[in-house]
Structure formats: C-alpha cells, structure tokens
Design a protein that fits this description.
heterodimer, A: 386 residues, alpha+beta, Beta-Lactamase, Heat Shock Protein 90, 3 domains, five-stranded antiparallel β-sheet, 8 helices, 22% strand, B: 157 residues, alpha/beta, Rossmann fold, five-stranded parallel β-sheet, 5 strands, 13% strand, globular
Chain lengths: 386, 157
C-alpha cells in the first residue's frame, strides 16, 4: 500500500527489506499516515489513523478522504490535492478533522506528493497529529500566564497604593503628636508628653517598615540586567562608606579583589550592602572588629561568596528564620533593624539562581554565604573589572 | 529678596495643615495659595482672574490628586507659555521609581518625598523655600509678568 521513493536501493532483496522496514515505521507511528490518490481516494491507512479517526483500513480504503473533513471543510482538502497535483508540498498547517463518531478534533497536518518508480506523481501522503492535548496545554499555559500577569498587576497597584496612601496618615500621626507636644506640652504633664513621644516613635518606626517592605517588593519585581560586576570592588566601596559613617570605630576590612560575576549590578550591590551593614552593626559592641569579604569553592562546584564578621553572632538554632521577612534574632534595643535586609538578600540571590545561608554561634561572629548561578567571568574580560 | 507666592497643590486637609505649620515654623513669609485638587490648581493658574494674580514663584505639587492628577497638572503647566518656566517641585508621599521618572520626564525641577517625621518635614519645607525662593534665581518672566505683583507677608489660603 505504501509507495515510497527509496534512494540508493538496488537489489530486489534490499528493496523488500527496506520496504518492510519503512512499513514497520509507518505502522508504529503515533501520527496518522494516510495515502490518497490525486482525486482524493484513500489508498493506505496506518494503525494510528485507525485509532485517531475510528475507521478500520477496510472501511476507509477506496473511499473519498473528504469523509475525514469536518462539515464545510471538504473544499480545503480538494484545494490542497490540487496544489499537490502541481507538485507542491504542503507543510504543517493546523485544521480540524472529524472522527467516524462525528466528533471534531484539531490536527496538525503535512501533505506531500507521492511518486512511483518512474517518478510519476501518483498521489499524496498526509501525516496528521492530533493536537487536542497540545492545544489544551497551550490554553492552560495562556490562562496561567494571564493569571500571573493579573497577580503582578495587582501587586503593582497594591505597592503603588502602599507607597502613596499608607504614609500620609503616619505623617499626620507624627506631625500632630509633635504639634501636641509643642503647643500643649505644658498642660499634658510628663506622662502625657511620654505618650505623645510614643506616638511619634511608633509612626517613625512604621514608616521605616513600609519603606523596607517596598524595597523588598522592588527587589523581587525589578527587571534583571545582567552584566559583569566585581563584587570585591563593590564591597570595598561599601566598606569605605561604612568607615566614613563612623570614623571612630576600629574595624579591619579584608576584601578579596577582584571577584567578578555576571549579575544585576544594582541588585547585587543591595546584597553586599545588606550583608556588610549587618556585619558592621553586629560588631558595634566590640572595641575592635574584623569584617571579611571573600570567595571559596562551594560544594556543588560553584563559587561561594561570603561576608564574615567576629561580632555578636546568633544562635544557630534559629538560623532557618534569618532570611524570612520581619524575623529578628535580636531585640531592637540590642541592635536596631526591621528584619527586611536578609529577606532582600534571599530574594535577590534566588533571582540569580543561587542560594544564601549562614553559620554562627553566639558571640563567635557570623558568616553569610551566597552562590549565584551565573558562570564566573574572568576579570580581564569584564569591562567594569579592568 | 523675592516674595513670590507659593502654590501648594494638596488634597489632604491634614497634610495641608502640617505643611502650613512647617512653613510657619520655618518663618517663610511668602504668601501660600492652596489648591485642593488638580482641577483647582489649573483654575488657579489658567482660570478666570488668573491673569490678575501674580504667578507663583514655586509650585509644590502632590501627585495623587482627585479629578486631575499631578502629572496632568504638570503637563499643562509645561505646555502653557505663561507658566512653563515656573519651578515645580513634586512634593508627595511616594518615591516609586516610576513616579520619580515620570516627574522628571514631565519637566519637574525637583522631586521631594514628604518625610513622615515632622522635624524632617519642617526641615524639608525650610530647605525648599530657602533654595527655590531665596537662593535660586527665577526666570525673568516669572518675576515680572504682565500682572503686577504685590509683595505680601499674608499667610494662608
């Protein structure tokens, strides 16, 4: 039934072997492979065609192929066969077909001309694939993408509203409690003045929390622009800024340079800033301190970057909480902060395909590690690292 | 010394009161006109009788406003021959990057986020006034437009 041009086959035996091989391929195909004459009568029918359309070979061979067309689509096939008759090949196109039981389903079809041994055009062969599942998966993907886009838009407008509307009442709490203290402080008495002071302090703190939350949301949404960044050079800049901010502190910084990697420069600076500022903060109770930025090989063969200090450290039992927003392992009285910094670090490192973790013991300092997915970049090739 | 009036575009009454308080704490003597939404700001600048009023030497513009938002007010200010050179400082709650960018793209001269802390807010108000109305030289057409300008120490709206 199947006519196939076999290049380079000479002897009859070889021809028979090749034909049975090809016939096996056709019979085992999951795609419906159907031969037809140029006037549209079915000449061959593989098992996949039987499964797909519901007709056995006996039922369909010799009948017009248009019975497979869904109502109103017969002209489509006639037109394609006319094109085949002119020697054209009709590549993938999507259409619908009808089963024996009348159900209609989507297919992707390729139709090619078939020639006999003398090179004469004798018919056409079509390969059809049922794309019901594929279309369903595509629709599902489109739906999920739309859901995600909607959720993102909602998050955007939520963030926008937080940034615009949540601060105004705080400004009023703060401003009017200050006005109360200033204009009516004498009649409030010491207790009353204390209360007003609490209102001021609480609104200041909430403003800080809102800002930190907005920063966290920014790092999780900001578009990534990867380029070569020398983390060592960035760490050195941040270290110098920290030392300028409190020139009386005696802190020794050791910074490994260069340490180049492909990353989003702004986001990765936020990581270093948070880790180095933490190290600076948690060594503030010590007369002398050392803070180190460096790299070492990680277990998975990637490069691991770390910031190590010899400060207050933390109880390793709570290490798991460190990178969640608003989790703090020290009271605000001991060390100020909102608990957003390490959550930002975690977000950014994850967005770079890496991970972050920490090791410590109480009063034995802390080391924060992170990896980044991006391959290491030789510093000599990095424009920002020359 | 320039005593050009300031136009404050602010819809929130409590914020307006605090801003006034901050200005008064800072001994700012410029007259301050307040527009409570974007439409009122446009009416003040372009409506009936606006030609007889002195042009503000500084516009403090909130972004999230009822009716006509701050960006649209800014666009109209920059589009109009008479007002296009007036310094406009966006004074708002947000520091969302898209707002800051859109502010500068719309031709704002500065973008200041209102601090929550009142002492910081007063300091910001004082600094704005010092810079824009005392230190900074205003464009000539803002100083002497056709309308007469009477220096005034009057306060309020």
């Amino acid at each position: 039934m199947v006519q196939l041009p076999l290049a380079g086959v000479g002897a009859r035996g070889d021809l028979a072997t090749a034909a049975s091989l090809l016939s096996a391929i056709v019979n085992s195909s999951d795609d419906a492979i159907v031969g037809k004459t140029l006037d549209g009568l079915v000449t061959s029918w593989n098992p996949a065609a039987e499964r797909m359309y519901g007709y056995s070979a006996d039922e369909i061979v010799g009948r017009p192929v248009t019975v497979l067309c869904s109502p109103g689509r017969a002209a489509e096939v006639t037109e394609i066969l006319a094109r085949i008759g002119r020697g054209e090949r009709v590549l993938h196109h999507e259409t619908v077909r009808q089963r024996k039981d009348g159900t209609v389903f989507p297919v992707s079809v390729t139709i090619s001309p078939v020639y006999d041994e003398r090179g004469e055009l004798i018919g056409a062969s079509s390969i059809a694939r049922d794309i019901t599942e594929q279309q369903r998966a595509e629709a599902e993907l489109r739906r999920r993408t739309a859901d995600l886009e909607r959720a993102n838009r909602n998050l955007e407008s939520f963030t926008y509203s937080v940034s615009h509307d949540l601060r105004a009442p705080l400004r009023e709490l703060n401003g009017f409690s200050a006005a109360l203290l200033e204009d009516c402080g004498d009649s409030l008495g010491e207790t009353g003045r204390g209360y007003a002071g609490h209102i001021t302090a609480a609104s200041d703190q909430m403003a800080e929390l809102i800002d930190d939350l907005l920063d966290l949301s920014r790092v999780s949404r900001a578009a990534m622009h990867l380029q070569v960044v020398d983390l060592g050079a960035e760490a050195a800049i941040i270290a110098a800024e920290l030392q300028r901010s409190e020139p009386d502190r005696r802190v020794t910084f050791t910074v490994q340079q260069p340490a180049c990697v492909r990353a989003d420069p702004r986001l990765i600076r936020t990581v270093l800033q948070n880790l180095l500022e933490n190290a600076w903060k948690f060594t503030s109770r010590h007369d002398r301190a050392s803070i180190e930025f460096g790299t070492m090989p990680a277990e998975d063969g990637r490069t691991c970057y770390y910031v190590r200090d010899d400060g207050a450290g933390f109880d390793p039992a709570y290490a798991g909480k460190l990178f969640s927003p608003f989790q703090r392992l020290h009271s605000a009285r001991e060390f100020p902060g909102t608990g957003i910094g390490l959550a930002s670090v975690h977000q950014i490192v994850e967005r770079h395909g890496g991970r972050a973790w920490a090791e410590s013991a109480v009063e034995a300092g802390a080391t924060f590690y992170f990896t980044l997915d991006a391959e290491e970049t030789p510093c000599s090739t990095g424009p920002s690292c020359s | 010394m320039q005593y050009r009036p300031i136009l404050l575009v602010e819809d929130n009454a409590a914020d307006e009161e605090l801003t006034m308080r901050a200005f008064s704490k800072s001994n700012i003597v410029n007259q301050i006109a307040v527009a409570h939404d974007g439409a009122e700001a446009l009416e003040h600048l372009f409506g009936d009788g606006s030609a007889r009023r002195p042009l503000p030497g500084l516009i403090l513009l909130d972004l999230k406003l009822p009716k006509v938002d701050g960006f649209e007010v800014l666009r109209r200010i920059r589009a109009h021959e008479r007002t296009r050179l007036i310094p406009v400082v966006i004074l708002t709650s947000s520091r969302q990057e898209e707002d800051v960018l859109a502010g500068y793209q719309g031709g704002a001269n500065a973008y200041v986020r209102k601090p929550v802390n009142f002492a910081d807010f007063s300091h910001a108000a004082r600094t704005l006034d010092m810079f824009w109305l005392l230190l900074n030289e205003l464009p000539p057409n803002v100083i002497s437009p056709a309308a007469s300008a009477t220096p005034s120490a009057a306060r309020g709206t």
